[in-house]
Amino acid sequence: MSETPVPRPDQTRIERRAGERPSGPRKEQLDAFFDKLRETHEQYRDNDAFIKAFRQRTEEALTRLTTLMPERVNQTPPGGVPLSIMAEVEATHLAEADAQRIDAEKESKEDKLTGLPNRRGMEERMDAMEAHAHRKGEPLTYIMVDGDRFKRVNDTIGHEGGDKVLKGIADVMRANLRESDVAARWGGEEFVIALPDTNIEGAIGVVERIRTTMKPELSRILLEAGYSEEQIADLALTASFGIADASSASATREDILKQADAALYVAKQTRNRVVGPQELRATIDTQQLDLNEIARIQEEDRAAAQQPEHLPPTRWMRHPNGDDPSPYSDDPSQLDNDTSGNKTE
Question: Which helix (H) or strand (E) holds 50?
Answer without folding.
Answer: helix 48-68
